[in-house]
């Protein structure tokens, strides 16, 4: 079995097993479940949400299966980055174990009240949820061992940009360049956080679910950015929002080029990255706009058609230097 197949299995396996455990618990406790049953345990360990047992079962199974499918896709998607793939796999599997444990705990807590009991008195001790997360952590450790060690990373790619080209422009001509680039893995992770937030809110209340939602929404909104090159220099903004905005002014650019960038080897991950001598926005590996700054450091942005952007920036920078003018925003 290939390493990717083994890691996908580690990510997926707990989810159908958790579904089987939930179905088994439901049919074991069905005759003792109140109607409606407590489906939501809020602040103070008190039930403040109720639903039919059949609906609770259906929602729980759908959420478990959807999260399993999403993590399987993310594990496959990160096959070119073994270190990240390994972490995604064990996180997905551990989440399946923890969520399955909690759902079974909620069914058991309702059964203890009885079919004729008051569902409002249902409680879920925090230690039960703690055991669920502990079981997920144990599975994560075992999954990490099963997925195997990563190979030593290849040497970092050469940081020197490709030969600096110029884009022909007349004295009175101006031009601008823009492209949108996205991160598929970030979209998936953001979606997982949103689904998890909704599920946690259903189970434990909006206080806990809000944490996942607050993390998931920015991931989804910032998964695509617009990269522009013009007389203002390099500007990067979210594709769907005007803010936050990152700008590298033309006067700070010594020379621009393009080169391949590996997100993990060169910058240690995705998103906005900053290391000694290099910084930038990396949403994927591949061709990148590379600017050597007047400070001696390098700024990179992974984006398609980076060569055209670099050529335009070199032309505009040459014009500004020859005119002796500052760049106005």
How would you describe what is shown here?
With 329 residues, the chain is α+β, with helices and mostly antiparallel strands. It is built from nine helices and eleven strands. The protein has a five-stranded mixed sheet with strand order 7-10-11-9-8. Strands 3-4-5-6 form a four-stranded antiparallel sheet. Strands 1-2 form a two-stranded antiparallel ribbon. A hairpin with a 7-residue loop joins strand 5 (233-238) and strand 6 (246-248). Helix 1 (3-12) packs parallel to helix 4 (82-113), helix 2 packs antiparallel against helix 3 (53-77) and helix 2 packs parallel to helix 4. It is elongated, with a radius of gyration of 26 Å. The model is unreliable at 152-162 (pLDDT under 50).
Put the structure in a nutshell.
By secondary structure, this protein is α+β, with helices and mostly antiparallel strands.
Descriptors:
four-stranded antiparallel sheet; 329 residues; elongated; 20% strand; alpha+beta
Determine the strand fraction and express it as a percent band: 15-25%
CA radius of gyration is 26 Å
Total helical elements: 9
State the end-to-end distance: 56 Å
Largest sheet properties: 5 strands, mixed
In one word, what is the shape? Answer: elongated
According to DSSP, the number of beta strands is: 11
* Average predicted confidence as pLDDT: 81
Global structural class: alpha+beta
The helix content, as a percent range, equals 40-55%
Low-confidence stretches: 152-162
Trace the largest sheet across and list its strands.
7-10-11-9-8
**Order of H and E elements:** HHEEHHHEHHEEEEHEEEEH
């Amino acid at each position: 079995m290939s390493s990717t197949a083994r890691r996908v299995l580690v990510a997926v396996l707990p989810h159908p097993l958790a579904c089987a455990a939930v179905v088994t618990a439901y049919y074991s406790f069905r005759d003792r479940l109140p109607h409606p049953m407590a489906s939501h345990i809020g602040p103070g360990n008190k039930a403040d949400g109720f639903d039919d047992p059949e609906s609770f079962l259906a929602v729980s199974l759908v959420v478990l299966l959807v999260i399993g499918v999403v993590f399987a896709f993310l594990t496959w998607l990160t096959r070119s980055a073994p270190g990240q793939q390994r972490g995604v796999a064990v996180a997905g599997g551990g989440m399946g174990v923890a969520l399955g444990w909690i759902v079974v705990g909620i069914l058991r807590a309702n059964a203890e009240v009885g079919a004729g009991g008051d569902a409002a008195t249902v409680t879920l001790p925090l230690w039960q949820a703690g055991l669920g997360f502990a079981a997920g952590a144990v599975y994560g450790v075992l999954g990490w061992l099963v997925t195997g060690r990563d190979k030593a990373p290849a040497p970092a790619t050469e940081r020197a940009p490709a030969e600096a080209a110029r884009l022909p422009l007349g004295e009175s001509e101006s031009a601008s360049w823009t492209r949108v680039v996205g991160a598929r893995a970030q979209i998936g992770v953001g979606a997982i956080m949103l689904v998890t937030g909704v599920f946690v809110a259903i189970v434990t209340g909006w206080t806990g679910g809000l944490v996942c939602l607050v993390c998931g929404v920015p991931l989804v909104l910032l998964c695509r950015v617009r990269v522009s090159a013009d007389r203002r220099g390099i500007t990067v903004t979210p594709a769907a929002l005007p803010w936050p905005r990152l700008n590298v002014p033309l006067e700070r650019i010594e020379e621009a080029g393009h080169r391949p960038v590996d997100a993990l080897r060169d910058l240690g991950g995705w998103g906005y990255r900053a290391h000694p001598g290099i910084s930038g926005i990396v949403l994927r590996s591949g061709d990148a706009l590379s600017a050597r700054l007047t400070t001696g450091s390098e700024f990179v942005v992974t984006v398609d058609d980076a060569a055209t952007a670099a050529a335009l920036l070199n032309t505009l920078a040459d014009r500004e230097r020859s005119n002796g003018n500052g760049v106005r925003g």
